[in-house]
Design a protein that fits this description.
Length: 141
């Protein structure tokens, strides 16, 4: 039974070259894009949006509301360096992100607020008066 081509070594290449080629492919793969996880909860008088932003600080992202669209954008940067006897490892990753959420109702952007704690962003968006549900009385005819 013949081995799959991944296990066959070309006699013109050394085993070191085989491993070099394998690692070169791994090193050139782009890092996975960061996209914060979002939860949108609708309450009677407001919308709550929670975004997971681990490893970020307030200066790393921005929020804006335009009409019924909430936009969260920013950049995630990470650097790790380790030195031990005989070797040095340094890894950096970075990338920008943008999440756009079409809100189910119109909100009052002037009364919106946000807080950021332990890597979780919480945005409170009060519903606009025109978006609030009103009961309509019905008269007997």
């Amino acid at each position: 039974m013949a081995l799959p081509s991944i296990f066959r070594v070309n006699p013109d290449h050394s085993i070191e070259r085989l491993f070099d080629d394998m690692w070169r492919g791994v090193a050139t793969q782009p890092a996975a894009a960061f996209a914060p996880r979002l939860d949108v909860v609708e309450r009677e008088s407001e919308l709550l949006v929670n975004a997971e932003l681990p490893g970020l600080e307030e200066k790393d992202f921005s929020l804006e509301v335009h009409g019924n669209v909430l936009t969260l954008r920013g950049e995630k940067r990470s650097e790790h360096e380790e030195r031990k006897q005989g070797w040095h490892w340094n890894e950096r990753s970075y990338g920008s992100f943008r999440r756009v959420v079409e809100l189910p109702v119109e909100v009052d952007a002037d009364k919106a607020s946000a807080s950021f704690k332990n890597g979780v962003l919480t945005v409170t968006l009060p519903k606009a008066e025109s978006a609030k549900v009103r009961n309509i009385p019905v008269n007997a005819g």
